[in-house]
Amino acid sequence: MIATLTGNVLMTGPDRAVIDVGGVGYEVFLSSDGLARLPEKNSQIFLHIHTHVREDAIVLFGFLEVEEKELFLILKTVSGIGPKLGLAILSGMPVADLCQAIVREDISRLTTLQGVGKRTAERLCVELKDKVSHLQGAGEGREGVAEKVTSLSAAPGGAVLDTLSALVNLGYPDPVARQALTVVKKRVGAASFATMQIEELIRETLRTLA
What we know:
Blueprint: E1 4-12, E2 16-21, E3 24-29, H1 32-36, E4 44-53, E5 58-63, H2 66-75, H3 83-92, H4 95-103, H5 107-110, H6 118-128, H7 145-152, H8 159-169, H9 174-188, H10 190-193, H11 198-209
Parallel strand pairs: 3-5
Antiparallel strand pairs: 1-2, 1-4, 2-3, 4-5
């Protein structure tokens, strides 16, 4: 079983990336958040991997943090949640927020996730409440959402908020849109980012998400 991969980002798609490890390209499925936070093409990346074996295929799922992989494996223990739905759930909410929603039995919040109806949300709370409580603080060392908003607010005329709204309307989860904008700011530099208009921000952010 493949547990980790260290290699260069060869290419990315809507739900996957190809990681070049010693001349061999591994196709790895990631959450939207994970894809948004991948480095640029040809940059090195380390991924935690879950190897899912089916009768007709071996599928790799990748995670930037071990906590995300752990939660993914926990989600798969719930009846009706397979790997693809588990990844979709992780795409809709950060690990800590998702675990808090489960522990607090926040059904209304959980049903906003892709593929999660009321019955599935209830099963998540009943079956996982005690299993995910230790992950509620996951990611505390990373930049919080509020901090990200503050760091992005240098763009003029509310352009960042307008871009976020446009991306959400296009179907991208809010955390993924924020992460993509953070990547854009890092790529172009704070000074250039501060002068970008909404059309430029949308174009560059979509390029990051492509």
